[in-house]
């Protein structure tokens, strides 16, 4: 167990280093002349050169990477690099603020969006997947498969627009103001308003995920239901509901949890379309705005944040899977 944990930690650190180097190198290729993009409009060549010198953009990319890691910008008179503690992710050229502070300000929005949607789609997918497996080939199985394929086929931008149109616009026309069209209220400020503002974004993300998870739960359940211990439980007279929800589902959960962790990590990297449709000021919107404005410290910072979220989530999923394995517990 200790050896496996050490291997996972080393793999995670190696992944972060590779992501950092690649993102740093790619931003240097994507932005051929970032000083010109950052300089004021109609700036002279001397002004552009001055911007490049001030931000060290005229140095080779590997020297800029070294500076990013071990020196960083001077904040409150002290150097702040990624290798300092606490780690700093650079300084935004456009926002004139530390990238770490910008990400930490946006992260609660993206985290609330991702976790809420995960709970909704997992609960619905698990229940409907078990029901589909229980009545395999029956009408309810075909109906659930139909809705799963529809959910998978509809793009997120379309489902988001439709949900906003019906549950905000049409409801508002009839005097029903249950769901706001945009905005975010922190959970600590007002839990009810927090849920109201996120209900439609949660539904948008959940619709896109329920289909694949529902089909996966169904397939895993059907695989487990063919095992000998399930037949033994039936021979002993164990009720069907207990066989499905206690015996079979427990064994079928590992691949579902793994996929759920991967999807959660992907959304943590930025559910850009959903955040844009519902006006959520999250990490995804900030990353896109930074990419369009050539604010590459923010682009690199959000990339490292997304990679860290992915690594932490997959590490947690691996540990849960190890803990759920009876061989490891014994």
Automatic annotation (TrEMBL):
It holds the Pfam family BPD_transp_1. Its main location: membrane. It is found in: Cell membrane. It comes from Pararhizobium capsulatum DSM 1112. Keywords: Cell membrane, Membrane, Transmembrane, Transmembrane helix, Transport. It is a multi-pass membrane protein. This is Peptide/nickel transport system permease protein. PROSITE patterns: ABC_TM1. The keyword Membrane applies. It comes from the Bacteria.
């Amino acid at each position: 167990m200790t050896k496996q944990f050490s291997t996972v930690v080393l793999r995670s650190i190696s992944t972060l280093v590779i992501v950092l180097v690649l993102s740093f190198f790619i931003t240097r290729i994507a932005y051929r002349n970032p000083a010109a993009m950052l300089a004021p409009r109609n700036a002279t060549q001397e002004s552009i050169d001055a911007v490049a010198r001030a931000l060290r953009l005229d140095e080779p990319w590997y020297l800029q990477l070294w500076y990013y890691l071990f020196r960083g910008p001077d904040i409150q008179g002290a150097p702040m690099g990624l290798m300092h503690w606490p780690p700093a992710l650079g300084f935004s050229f456009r926002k004139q603020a530390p990238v770490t502070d910008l990400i930490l300000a946006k992260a609660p929005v993206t985290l609330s969006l991702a976790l809420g949607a995960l709970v909704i789609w997992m609960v619905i997918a698990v229940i409907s997947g078990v029901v589909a497996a229980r009545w395999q080939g029956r009408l309810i199985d075909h109906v659930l498969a139909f809705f799963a394929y529809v959910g998978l086929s509809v793009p997120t931008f379309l489902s988001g627009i439709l949900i906003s149109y019906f549950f905000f616009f049409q409801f508002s026309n009839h005097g029903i103001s249950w769901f706001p069209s945009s905005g975010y209220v922190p959970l600590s400020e007002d839990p009810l308003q927090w849920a109201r503002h996120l209900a439609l974004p949660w539904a948008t993300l959940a619709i896109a995920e329920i289909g694949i998870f529902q089909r996966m739960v169904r397939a895993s359940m059907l695989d487990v239901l063919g095992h000998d211990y399930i037949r033994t439980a039936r021979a002993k007279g164990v009720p069907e509901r207990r066989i499905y929800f206690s015996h079979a589902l427990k064994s079928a959960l590992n691949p579902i949890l793994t996929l759920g962790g991967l999807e959660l990590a992907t959304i943590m990297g930025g559910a850009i379309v959903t955040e844009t449709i519902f006006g959520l000021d999250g990490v995804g919107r900030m990353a896109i705005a930074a990419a369009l404005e050539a604010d590459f410290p923010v682009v690199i910072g959000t990339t490292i944040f997304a990679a860290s979220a992915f690594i932490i989530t997959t590490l947690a999923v691996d540990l849960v899977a190890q803990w759920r394995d009876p061989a490891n517990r014994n």
